[in-house]
Structure formats: C-alpha cells, structure tokens
Specification:
Helix content is 65%, strand content 2%. By secondary structure, the protein is mostly helical. The protein has a two-stranded antiparallel ribbon with strand order 1-2. Strand 1 and strand 2 form a beta hairpin. The longest helix has 28 residues. Keywords: Cell cycle, Cell division, Cell membrane, Cell shape, Cell wall biogenesis/degradation, Magnesium, Membrane, Metal-binding, Peptidoglycan synthesis, Transferase, Transmembrane, Transmembrane helix.
Length: 364
C-alpha cells in the first residue's frame, strides 16, 4: 500500500512542478501545436500552444513508479509492470516522432498513417512476445496468456490449442487491441483536458482491478474462500504502475485543463493508449477494456461512422464534424462544457466496467 500511494503522490508532484518548466523550454524550442486547416475555427487560438506534454507525465510516471518501490518495500519490481512501461514509452516514442515532424515542419500532419501503425505494431509485437515469457517460478504464470479474456481468461477462447497458428493469432489480437486503444485515445485528444481526464478515470478502474486481484490471488492466503481466485502474474504491481501514471496525469491536468497551457500531443496520447492496452492484457480484462474505455470507443466510432456514411451517400454527413466532440463544438457548446460532460460519460463507463468485474467475481 505504501508503494502504491507513494508512486501516485510522486508522479503527481513531478508533473505538477515540472510541467511549467517544460512549457517554457518547449516555447523556446518552437515546439508549438499546429492546427488542422479543416478543424473548428475556434481552435486557431491554440496555435503555438506548447505540445509534447506527454514527455512530462510519461517521465513522471516512471519516476513515481521506481521511487514508490524504493519507499515501499515488499513489492518487487515485476516483469508485468516493466511491460506496461515498455508500451507506454514505446508508443510514446512513435507519437514523439509524429509530434516532432509536425512542429519542425509546422503542419498538422506528421508521420503518415501507415508509418504510425508500423511503429505501433513493432512495439506491440515486441510486448506480446515478451509478455508470453517470464513465467513466475512459483505459479508458472506468464504476464500474458494465450487466452482472450473478459473479466478473466475465457477457457474456450484459449488459442494455445491451435499450436503455432494460435500463437500468431495471439500476437495479432494483442496488436489489434493495442493499436485500436492507442489511436482511440489519440482521436479523443481533440479538446483541452478531454483525453487526460478520461484516461485518469480508465486507469482508476485498473488500479481497483489490480488491487482486488492481488487480494484475491490464488496464491494469497487472505483471499476469500467463497469465490474463485485470480490467475494473474503481478496484479499489485500493475496497480502500482497504473497509480503512478494516474497521479502523473492528475498533475499534468492542472496545466492541461481548459484553457490548456500545454497539450499532450501524440507523444502522450499514443503512449497512454499503449499503457491501457497493456494493463488490460496483463490483468486478463481485454474485452472489459471496451467498456472501461467506452468513451474512446464512442468517439472513435463517430469517425468511422462519419467516413463510411460520407462514402456511401457520396458526400452526406451524420455529424457536423467528427470526432464527436467537434460536432458539439460546432453546435455551440463551450469547450469546457464538452470536456466536463464527456468526463462524466467516461466516469459512467468506468463505473459500469468495474461493476461488471466485481459482479462477475461474485457470481463465480
């Protein structure tokens, strides 16, 4: 518990204190946000706002995690948490390359779509391969499993029985989950504070899940005898790394809340999506992520529906503009109103996801 609280507190203080320094440095270096020419005209005032703020909270989460372990003995640094960090940093690097290209050329497009996907797939494939290694010497559990999961592994969706084909399908599944989540958070990052607050709420679910799985782990002497235990490699350390990242995001949100003084950029958005996907894979809650991160799914879905409808009807639109938050912006909603209402929706999805997880345990 000390490690968990320390990780969150250190991450929060780091981002809260370091972000103003980063803003001044980024302004000096010319790391200002370019604006889409086809975006809402109200966003013109954001041109030049320091971007790549993701560098701050990614660093803050690492500092928080490792200091949390120094302060709170008893919980070893685990392969599972390091794999979450791999996804956070790896996807963040892909985003950084995209952001750096934008700021250097001062255009709203950085890497091409396929270049970003290639980078995401490279990181996610490395994660998937490593996650199937590092078996615990006592339980034999690896960080990830070959089964697709909901609130725990689904036995009849264990792909290991297909041999080599099954392993390939596992790699494809993890890649699909990671790329979709990473891009989902990125699409959501179109309003000040929107992606930051929504991700904090999603991470809160994984903090609860990791802590609860730890107390109800099959190897735990304190687990309830009335209900089935959880087969997860390092649930408590997953909660610690999620807390460090959440705390760091809370500190960053102080400066990123509307009107934002700094923007997370693709550096932050892609990194956060990668971390959420990793937490879902390693906590055996992959399909539950669709509910926990329901806002990301809705907003990304609005883009897909808009484009499909536009092509099918040869130019007609369902929304005034996609993603969905821009639709409401063009309808006259204030940006802060959109952000807060969407946070509420994200919170509802998070509560439903945690509720399903807990009810599933009760019914086991």
């Amino acid at each position: 518990m000390i490690a968990l609280l320390s990780a969150g507190a250190v991450g929060l203080l780091f981002s809260l204190l370091v972000t103003p320094v980063a803003m001044r440095l980024y302004a000096r270096w010319g790391w200002g946000q370019p604006i889409r020419v086809d975006g809402p005209t109200t966003h013109e005032v954001k041109r030049g706002t320091p971007t790549m703020g993701g560098l701050v909270f990614i660093t803050g989460s690492l500092v928080g995690y490792f200091i949390g372990h120094l302060v709170g003995p008893g919980v070893p640094i685990s392969p599972s948490a390091l794999l979450v960090i791999l996804m956070l940093v790896g996807h963040g690097i892909v985003g950084f390359l995209d952001d750096f290209t934008k700021t250097r050329l001062q255009r709203s497009l950085g890497l091409t779509g396929w270049q970003k996907i290639a980078g995401q797939v490279t990181v996610s494939t490395l994660f998937a391969i490593l996650a199937l290694q590092f078996a615990d010497p006592l339980t034999g559990l690896t960080p990830a499993s070959t089964a697709i999961s909901f609130t725990r592994d689904i036995p009849w969706l264990n792909l290991a029985g297909l041999g080599l084909v099954g392993v390939v399908l596992v790699l494809i599944w993890i890649n699909l989950l990671a790329v979709a989540t990473s891009n989902g958070v990125n699409v959501t990052d179109g309003q000040d504070g929107l992606a930051t607050g929504s991700t904090i709420l999603a991470l809160s679910a994984f903090i609860f899940i990791g802590f609860f799985q730890s107390s109800q782990a099959c190897q735990s002497a304190t687990r309830s005898l009335e209900h089935a235990c959880f087969q997860v490699r390092d649930p408590l350390d997953l909660a610690i790394v999620a807390t460090a990242l959440s705390g760091s995001l809370i500190g960053f949100l102080w400066w990123n809340a509307p009107p934002a003084k700094i923007i997370m950029g693709d550096t932050g958005a892609l990194g956060l999506g990668g971390a959420l996907a990793a937490l879902a894979v390693l906590s055996r809650t992959e399909l539950l992520l669709i509910i926990i991160g329901g806002l990301f799914c809705v907003i990304t879905g609005s883009v897909i529906v808009q484009r499909a409808y536009f092509k099918l009807t040869k130019g007609k639109r369902i929304f005034l503009m996609s993603p969905l938050h821009h639709h409401f912006e063009l309808k006259g909603w204030a940006e802060v109103t959109i952000t807060i209402r969407f946070w509420i929706i994200a919170g509802v999805f998070m509560i439903i996801g945690v509720g399903i997880f807990y009810v599933s345990w009760l019914g086991t």
